[in-house]
Predict the structure.
Amino acid sequence: MKRLLAIELQKIWKNRASRILTISYFVILSFIALIASVKLEIGYFKLHFAEMGIFNFPFIWHFNTYIAALLKFFLAIVIVSMMANEYSYGTLKQNLIDGMSKQEFVLSKFLTVILFAFTSTLFVFAMSLVLGYSFSSYTELGIVFSDLEYLLAYFVKLVGFFSFCLFLGVLIKRSAFAIGFLFVWFLIEKISFGYLKYEVFNKSPKVDDFYAYMPLESISNLIVEPFTRLNVIKNIQTAVGESNVKDYSIHFSSILIVLAWTAIFIFLSYKIIKKRDL
C-alpha cells in the first residue's frame, strides 16, 4: 500500500498544476484564521467575528469544518486531473505494463483520496485548536474536546466527495468535462429538489427525506450550516418572530449513506477500468 501511495504522490508532485492547487488549498484553508481579524464599523453598527463566538469551543469544530468543506473543490480538481492525466500521458497503460493490476491501480487512487481527506482533517483539527485556545471563552478539556464528531463528518464528507470526483475522472477521462459534469449534477439535484419541494409537493418533508439519499445532497447534509446557532442570529430571529428548530447534530445514518455512495463510486470506477480497453 505504501508503494501504491508513493507512486500516486510522485505523479501529483511532478505535475505543476496539481502541485500548485494542492499547496494553494492548504494555504487558503489557513486563511480561516483571518476571519478573527475582521472588524466592521458602520456608524453605531460594529461587527467583530471573533467576539461573536465563532471560535468558542465547542462551536469552532462545527464552524471550521463547515467553512473548510467549502474549499474542497480545489482538491476536487486535483483528483479529477489526477485521473485524466493517466489517460492523457499514458501512465495508466504503462503502470499496467509494469505489473500493476487494475485493482491495485484503483486502490492507489482511493488511498490518495483518503490521504487528502485525512491530511485536511488533521490540518483543520490543529488550526481549530490554535484558534480556539486563542479566542475561546471556554478552555476546559471537557468542552474543548466535545463535538469532535464534526471532524469525523468532515473526513467522511471529503472522502465521499473526492470518490465521486474520482469516479467522474474515470468515466469521462477529460478533467474539464468531468468538472463540468460535476457542476451540472449539482444543479440537477438543487433545481429538481426545489421544484419538487415547493411546486409539486407543497413543502413536504418527504422530499427532504428522499434527497437525503442523493449523492451530493447526502454529502452536503453531513454538516449543516452553523451560522444560525450563533446567539446574535438567534436574537435577530426572535426579534422578527422567527423560530429556529434546525437540527445541527451529526447523524450516524447520514455518515452511512455517504460511505455507501463512496463504496459505490469506487466499485464503479474499478468496473469501468476493468472493462475498458486501455
Observations:
- The mean pLDDT is 87.
- The CA atoms of residues 227 and 233 lie 7 Å apart.
- Strands lie at 39-42, 45-48.
